[in-house]
Specification:
Aminopeptidase; 34% helix
Amino acid sequence: MNYTTRNQRKRSFPFGTILFMLSLVFVVLAGISINKIRNGQPGFLTNLWEPDPNPAPDPYLDGNPLSLGVAGNVTSVMLLGSDYEPEIGFRTDVMLLVVLNTDTSQFSLFSFPRDLWVNIPGVGEQRLNTAYPFGGPQLLSDTLALNFGFRPDHFAMVDFQGFKHLIDVLDGIDVEVTSHTEDECHMNDSGWCVVEPGLTAMNGDEALWYVRARKNSSDFDRNRRGQEVIQAMVEKALRPSEILNLDNVYRALMRTVDTEMTITDGLLYFVPISKFFGGPDVTTYTITPTKAIPGMTNGGASVLFPDIPAIQAVLRQALWIE
């Protein structure tokens, strides 16, 4: 008797499918974990970033009536621009607070005028831009805590040559100029440069001049121009067309920026990247002459006397404090 059998396909164990599912589960859990970390909460895979359950008392915030109480979903970086001179060292003439709301991926930019007359712990009353040279990021952090009620989470400092290099690596930026600006410059034979309101293309030299021009303007005007340039840099760096240039930008950042932030910090605080493809949502805040009153010290120095309650009202907006 003859028998016929059907060819049956031998079933293989679906290792590929299982591996895919496990990878998907890991990605989902990691995403949840990152969101928890971004919001200042412990969660899965967060043991490296969990906050200290028993933090040491803060000598300048605990019991300070000015303490603002920044939420865990708000991360801030104090961006400092320094101008080094061998005979006097350096001062942080640019002090720009970059704030990220990790719930909404919105940014705030808040500028501190360099000539604010404040109490620097252990030093006394001095301009704000001398705190860093006196004692580095810790003393500047203490000064901000004592006088304004908050501490930045991170610091990043770049000198002006590094600033120019970053912009040139980006192949220039397009700055939305909001006010007529003219001042001495070295970029043309006349020795005088003029910029009118509107979208203006700038290379590194031009952007540095625009930020630093001071003979025909004020601290308040410089702060506005600094914010315009930083916003243009962020918008350029995060364009989809710049993806292929990210490696060059990263290398330039590593060479020119002095910071304690790590790549991990960048991943934690600046995801989801998809939020940026529509352009970053940036709101700028400035201190006006009514909040920092020009005056003279007893020694005859021209400074700005801060109206602390008025400045804190603006800080509350920049830091998303209800």
